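tool_call: predict_structure(chain=1)
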Amino acid sequence: MPLRRSLLARLIATSVLVAVCSIAATAWLAVQSTTRAIRQENGQAISDDRMIHDTLTAHAAAHPGWNGVQPTLRRLARDTSRRIVLTTGERTLIAASSREDSPLPRHASAVIDPLRADAGADTAGNSATDGIDPRATGPYLLPAHEARALRAVADDAVACLNAGRVAATRDDTPSGRPRIRLAAPSQGVYLGEACPETDRLNRPTATERPALRHLNVLVNECLERRGLSGGAEVRPDFTWLTKLPLGKHAGTVEECVAQSRREQLARYVAPMALLFVTTPGGAEGPQFDLSRDNALRVTGVTGLVLALTVTVSAVLATRLVRPLRALTDAARHSARSPVRVPVTRHDETGILAQAFNEMSEGRLRMEQQRKDIVSDIAHELRTPLTNIRSWLEAAEDGLAPDPDLISSVLEEAMLLQHIIDDLQDLAAADAGNLRLNLRRVGVHDVLEQIAAAHRARADRDGIRLTTDTCTDTGEGLVLTADPVRLRQAVGNLVSNALRHTPPGGHVGLRARPEGGDIVIVVTDTGTGISEEDLPRVFDRFWRAERSRNRHTGGSGLGLPLVRHLAQAHGGTVSAESTLGEGSAFTLRLPADGDPR
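tool_result:
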């Protein structure tokens, strides 16, 4: 058998395909789930790292040293489930969230330096374009009364601007100094002309004046060191004015202002520190390493799963295919003689083997029946043909034919004709070609005709033959049937009853309605049929007398023909008998059968 048509190969291929699809689907789901989890964990880790960095930067901006940072580290470690360590630039320990001795990573997670923070906006939304954290206020931190006074001025300025259809809002910086934010750029318009309050915000307070004077001294010294004179003035919001050409020296002035601010704030903030954020145990955070070793490990596990799938599939498929092959071999050998296969399982394959054995036994019985039928037909035809031949040979030898000889030859010829007619009817019934001429038939008339046809024989044998069609309604019993075939079926039953009833016995024909059927019963007081022989009375050529004596039994075709005629009318025939007491044959036909 070609491999592609082999059931075993197809079962293994199907199992491998299912395994591959399952592994692929599982791997895809695992990768998707892992990737999503890693992304979420990484996102949370980034958010936690940013919060840790921002909190520690705020602490450094508000304190001149790292003393007192330990509680903050512990709180952050508890909230994020991370280990947090601060060291100097030379990796000297400053503080740690726990006493764990695991080594630090090669690279720091971040640098904590409020004077050199990333440019951009901090968590409070304050601009830090010069790299100095806005929360590093130092000497510019306003007392409460000065901050309240400036906020009042800022509120008046915002109200004035909004009244002039300039959208503006007030913003408070970490130092307490408010500033005005415009929804759109002013495009060079001097707002102090319309709202003088905006100019009042640019005036330093008593707290800011000494700090600004010191800052301006530092800035001008820086410019002079770079060979620039003319000076610069830094305002309270750390913007500046200068008489130097802006197009040429703006960058230098900006650098000096930033450098001077760092120099001024240095003693107010904590020194630079390295930040290490790790998970407990020393790992730097969530990782997914699909290295060569891991890829080989995944490939090995996949190959092992496929190998196990193929092995298990091959074993199971072989066990499944082995009985099928035995059935195939048995079917091939059964063409010569029926063969049985052992039934070793109770699943679908075992059921199939049991069905095959039943089919094989049925075929054996059919073959035996065929042989028996051929033998029976030969036996049935041999006797009348032998008699006819002997009588014809006697006539050929010169014996004058007398009426008895002619009558005997005619009787044997009629017997042959009867056997041939029965065989022809049975063959037509088997082929489904038995034709019926259905019409409305009176049951009473049919039974009376049958009784009249067999009355002479009954009287000759001393048997009482009666009919009973329920005299009250008998003449009204009508059914749809072929009258010829109906008389043939009931006549065969009556003939069979007379043959097996001894002199002085009784044969009765009864008819009665029952539901939507007409029931015709032929009873006799004959020899009866044994219980083991009763199921075979409708088999062809079967007779209870093994000797096949024609005086006590017919051809064995009458009752099988009755069964076929009943089925052709949509009815049934059954037999009941008690050995030594008699028999009853019941013909049940529908009263209103559909013509076929």
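agent: The longest strand covers residues 506-514. Proceeding to next step.
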